[in-house]
Fold:
Amino acid sequence: MGVVGRDRGRSVVITKYSFQIPRRRFLQAAAAIAAVNIVPAKAWAQGGNDERQLVVKPGRAALRGEGYPETAVWTYDGVVPGPLLRIRQGEPFRVVVENKLEEDTTVHWHGIRLPNAMDGVPGLTQPPIRPGESFVYEFTPPDAGTFWYHPHSNSLEQLGRGLAGVLIVDETEPVPVDRDRLWTLRDWRVTSKGQVASGFGNMMEAGMSGRLGNTVTLNGAVPGSQRVRAGERVRLRLVNVSLARIMRLRFEGHDPLVIAVDGQPCQPHTPDDGHILLGPAMRIDLMIDMTGSPGRRYPVIDDFYEGLEYRLTELAYASEAPVRTVFPKPFVLPANPLPEPDLSAAERHELVLEGGMMGRGMMQGMGGMRGMAQAIWSINGTSMAGDGHAGTAPLLTLGRGKTHLITMRNQTAWWHPMHLHGFSFRVLTRNGAAVPHRRWADTVLMAPEDTIEIAFVADAPGDWMLHCHVTDHQMTGLMTVLRVADAEDRR
Ligand code: C2O
Ligand code: CU
Ligand code: CU
Structure:
C-alpha cells in the first residue's frame, strides 16, 4: 500500500528522493581545543505552571507556505500544531478547554500519568465537551519529557483536520544542551485545491495501512531547511502526530543518540542501523552534536515506505566557525519516578491482535463485521469500534498495585503502534530477544507478526484505553479497555 495521491502540486513533499546520497561522514579528529561546558538551553520553563486556556476552533493554516491557498483546519487556539504547552515536572497544571467546534470533543494528554478522570476519553472517563461548553483538566505531571495532546472524540477526523499539540514537561534541573528544539511531524491528505481531503473512514484503508497523507509538515509547515551552528549540542524532540504515517529517519553526516523514548529517559544509544523509527504518537528525544562543516547542508531522509523515500528536511549550517570541536560526554537524562515492575511476582496476560487485510486471522477479524459494521480488527476476538465508549466492559481487570506482564501478539500483516493510556511500560522483549537500553514507552510499534512483552505496575485505578494509534485501526476495532481495580472491586 503506497502513499495515496503523491506528487499532486509542486509543494507536495512526498516525492521520490532522487539525489545521490552523500557518503556518510565520520567525525573528524578534533584538532582544536574547545570548551566542554554547555550552558542549558533558555527555553526551559521557569517557575510554576500558569493556568492555561485552550480553545478548540476552526482556523486556517499555511501548510504549503506562501503563494498557496491556506488550508481550512481545526485548531487549538487558532494554530496548527496546537500551542506548545511547556510546564514543570511535579507542579500542578490546570487548563480550561473550550469547545468552539460544531461537534463534541475532549482532550487526551498522551503519555502523561494522571488521574483517570483527567484522561479525556468521552463516555469512559468524562462526558464529552459539547459545542459551546468547557472542561477543566487538572493534573500534576510526575514525569519530565516530551508528551502531546489530542482529541479522543471523532478521532480520525479531528486529528486528521489538525487537532494535535505538544506538551513538554521540563526537568526540575535544566539539561546541558545549547538548544532544545522540537519537530512536530505529521502528514496531511491535501487536495489539489489545498484543502484537507474528506473521505475519513475509508474501510479499504482502515484494513490496511490507514489514512496516509501526501504532504508532510514540520511544526505546521512544509519543511524548509533547519538552521544549525557547527559545534552545538542540540536536544531534538521528534513527535509524530500523524494519523497513520510511520517514519524512519536518517540524519546524513550525523550520529544522533536516542536519549528518551515516549518522554521517558533511556540509556543514550545509537538507533538501530542508524535509523530512527517513529510510529504515530511516538516521541523520541535525540542528542545531536553538530559535527558538520560550517556552510554545508545535510539531508534528513525518511525512507520507511519502500520506493517512497523522500527528503524530510536538511540541517543547514551557518557559516560561523564551530562553537566547539570537542564535545563533552553524552549526558543521561534524570530518570522519572516510575514504579519498577517486579517480574518475579507478575500477573501474566495475553493480547492477540487479528484482522485487517491479507493476514492470518483475517477471517476472524472480518467476521465481526456482521455484528458491528465497523469492526475490521480485533483484540482477543473482541472489537471495540467507533468513539462511543460508554458502557464498554473491560477486556481485562488488573489488580491494582501489582506488576502485569502482557504479551502482545500481532497476528496481522500490518504495523501497529500499540498505545496504553495512563501508564508507561517497560518493553521487555521483542520476538523473544531482550530489548536493550532499559526502554520505557507508552506506544510500542509492532511490525507484522511481532510478539512483544511489556510490563508495568498498575498503580492508577480506573478504566484505561489500549489501542492502536493508527487512527483508522483504532476506530475499526483495534481498541480495548483495561480496568485497574482493587481485588475486592474486581468483577
Ligand atoms: Cu494518543 Cu488514546 O491516545
Ligand atoms: Cu494516550
Ligand atoms: Cu494498527
In short: Helices lie at 155-160, 203-206, 362-367, 471-475. The CA atoms of residues 419 and 443 lie 4 Å apart. Residues 155-160 form the longest helix (6 residues).
